[in-house]
Structure formats: structure tokens, C-alpha cells
Design brief:
This protein is an alpha/beta fold. The protein is built from 11 helices and 8 strands. Helix 6 packs across helix 7 (about 210-220). Residues about 290-299 have low confidence and may be disordered.
Length: about 300
């Protein structure tokens, strides 16, 4: 299977076709696909979606996907890679150690998998989304000053809308019981270890510590502390993949005593040190892959 790579931090591509030239493939970057018009099938990791006008898809790295066009389709693709993510985080972190940007990305990666590719926008977000995509399309041919900066803002707005809708969709599909709210509380306060002590959570929800313990045993087959650690590690994985944060910065953010404590804990659960894990990602990205095929309309 063809594996496509993106050399530039981001790119936007638009084309209108009766038969999609993109056969079954995978890529090493994120891809947002907006259907401006047309109908067909979008196959993402074996999940088949019947697409139509204004449909929106998020295809994460490593996804096996292809389309079958049924009627003339106008595709708008927004692609971005780790370099783009690191650049955005680098801009934000001078104001906040954990930027809003990283929160958005975490929501996409942690809660978006159950969507299987398609993003179902809330009715109130559909006009905004359409306007943003049309502005991005118009910007492809614009030679105005600061056009690149405007495109970056439009792409970031798109990611914000996607993150918000994934968040809302995830909440609606989740159980409304106290246990679910405990999980949300843990996710919200993952950087505040004092609040995540069993007795403090029990007091916050006015329940017994035994209820908290039994809930995690029943639904996660482990303890609350094990769940917290696994969730921390999933966020640390994102830091190592999509940011240039130093190990001591990550250790400080997630409440480890120091870098040595962080390294020992990471290796205990992952079987590899965080520095070796990050190095392996660099080696993977440097491996020979096919470059994403571009059309004349690619900018």
C-alpha cells in the first residue's frame, strides 16, 4: 500500500473530479476532508461513509482510506503534520505551559477515535464551517499581504470547530451517571494531582470513597490510580509525538518529582525510555516514503 508523506508543515488542495485519483493509501500526517459538493463513498479503516455536500472527515495518521466517487465531487483537503503542530505550540507556550492548542489536539486524538473518521457538526456550527472552508478556498489564489498568516488562522479555526464538536458528540454519547462525571473530572484536572486523590474526588461528588474504588474496578478492571496513570501516559505520548517539549518540562507538567522519576515511570509502563521513544519516532519519520501527490491546484 502506498504511504504518503507531507514535506511542508501544511498544505491545502482542492480538486473537482468524476473519479478520485487517490487510490487506497495511508499517510503520515493529519488530513481534513471537506466535501463541497457531490456524492460517493469514503472508506476509512474499513468503515464506509456515504458522503454528500458539506460532509466533513478527519483522517488521522496511519489510516487506511480511499474514496469512490458516484457523482462529480469537489474535495477540499487540509493537511498538516508534526512540524505544523510544533510551530503552533511553540507560539502558544510562551503564554501558557499547556496551550489551548494542545488541549484541542488532545480532544481530537483521545476522543475522536469513536467517530471512525466522520465529524458530525452541530447545526449551529455548519454555517461557520462552510464559511471558513470557502475562505480557505478563496485564499488559495490570493496574493494579498499576510495571506499565509490568514490561512493559518483559518486552519486553526477549523481544528477548533472539529475539537469542539468531537467534545460535544462524545459527551452526548456517554453515560450520564456519576462515574462518567468522575472520568470527566479526572481528564479536566489531570495536571492537578491534589484534586485527584480518592478522598477529594469523593468529597467533590458527595459520594463514598468505596463507590469511587468499585466504579474503577468494575469499568476499568483496575484502580483509579492506574486509570490516572494510563491517561497521563496517553497525553505524554502526544507531547512526545507532537511537540518539542523537553523531558524535564513534561515531567514538571504532569507532576513527576523530576526527569529521572518521569523516565523510570514511563519505562515501567511502556518498556522504553521517553528519549528512546522520541528517537524511534524521528527514525520512523525519516524512513523513505512516497511524497503526497499534488495537483496543479495545490498551494
Amino acid at each position: 500500500m502506498e504511504i504518503q508523506n507531507l514535506i511542508k508543515p501544511f498544505e491545502v488542495e482542492h480538486f473537482e473530479v468524476d473519479e478520485c485519483p487517490c487510490k487506497r493509501h495511508m499517510h503520515t500526517y493529519f488530513e481534513i476532508t471537506y466535501i463541497r459538493k457531490g456524492t460517493g463513498e469514503y472508506n476509512i479503516n474499513g468503515n464506509i461513509f456515504n458522503y454528500k455536500e458539506n460532509d466533513l472527515f478527519l483522517v488521522p495518521p496511519g489510516s487506511d482510506h480511499f474514496t469512490n466517487v458516484k457523482s462529480t465531487t469537489s474535495f477540499l483537503f487540509i493537511r498538516f503534520n508534526n512540524i505544523y503542530l510544533q510551530a503552533q505550540y511553540g507560539t502558544d507556550k510562551q503564554f501558557n505551559a499547556l496551550s489551548d492548542w494542545m488541549h484541542k489536539l488532545e480532544y481530537i486524538l483521545q476522543n475522536g477515535s469513536h467517530l471512525k473518521g466522520q465529524v458530525n457538526l452541530q447545526p449551529e456550527d455548519q454555517p461557520l464551517s462552510k464559511a471558513v472552508f470557502e475562505a480557505i478556498l478563496q485564499g488559495l489564489d490570493s496574493q494579498k499581504s499576510l495571506q499565509n498568516e490568514l490561512m493559518l488562522q483559518l486552519i486553526n479555526t477549523t481544528i477548533t470547530v472539529i475539537a469542539r464538536n468531537i467534545s460535544m458528540h462524545h459527551t452526548k454519547e456517554s453515560s450520564s451517571d456519576t462515574g462518567h462525571h468522575i472520568l470527566q473530572f479526572i481528564h479536566q484536572h489531570i495536571h492537578e494531582p491534589q484534586k485527584l486523590k480518592s478522598e477529594n474526588i469523593a468529597a467533590h461528588f458527595n459520594i463514598s470513597p468505596n463507590y469511587v474504588s468499585e466504579y474503577f474496578k468494575k469499568h476499568t478492571h483496575g484502580s483509579m490510580q492506574q486509570y490516572i496513570m494510563q491517561y497521563k501516559l496517553s497525553l505524554i505520548d502526544i507531547r512526545l509525538r507532537h511537540s518539542d517539549m523537553r523531558l524535564n518540562e513534561i515531567a514538571d507538567e504532569f507532576g513527576f518529582t523530576d526527569e529521572s522519576h518521569f523516565t523510570k515511570t514511563f519505562k515501567k509502563y511502556k518498556g522504553i525510555s521517553p528519549s528512546a521513544f522520541r528517537k524511534s519516532l524521528t527514525e520512523e519519520s525519516a524512513a523513505p516514503v512516497c511524497t503526497a501527490s499534488l495537483t496543479e491546484e495545490t498551494r
